[in-house]
Amino acid sequence: MVALIPGMLVWICLQIGCEPPPPPDIIFVSQEVLLERVYGDKPHEGAYVCGLYQDKTQTVWLPHECRADDLLDQSTLLHELVHHVQTVLEMDYPCSAAREPLAYGLQAQWLLENGVEDPYAMMGVDDFTILIRSICWPVE
Q1: If you average pLDDT over residues 116-134, what whole number do you get?
Q2: 131 with 107: CB under 8 angstroms?
Q3: What residue ranges do the domains of the chain occupy?
Q4: What DSSP state is assigned to residue 2?
Q5: CA 88 → CA 1, 24, 27, distances in Å?
Q6: Alpha helix (H) ranges present in the chain?
Q7: Rounded to the nearest 10 degrees, how much is the dihedral formed by the CA atoms of 131, 19, 112, 71?
């Protein structure tokens, strides 16, 4: 997967008009570690985390089972790299969730360019799901 990163960063930056940043660190971890990082000690039934980007450390976290020869896994890496570019460029968003439309949009575009007819079906999302994941919810 690490060998894909330079080309993906160039592709992302060609889409949005920027210079490719230095690559982030990549950490491969168990699904349990990813679930804990996202949901704490209370993940919901059937929860699965495809990938995660940590702004403060500029690190992409991927599950151990992520494969470089799988288009969906590649697109997950690309999605997280979009967040890396957003962070390095200090793109302004009202909250971190508001960064999702660009990441999902570029992920879908990349999948289309790689021969996937219905990228949203492959990613398991639709416009409504992306909208919900993009809302800046009030902090309690």
Answers
A1: 95
A2: no
A3: 2-95
A4: G
A5: 21, 10, 18
A6: 5-16, 31-39, 71-88, 100-113, 119-123, 127-133
A7: -90
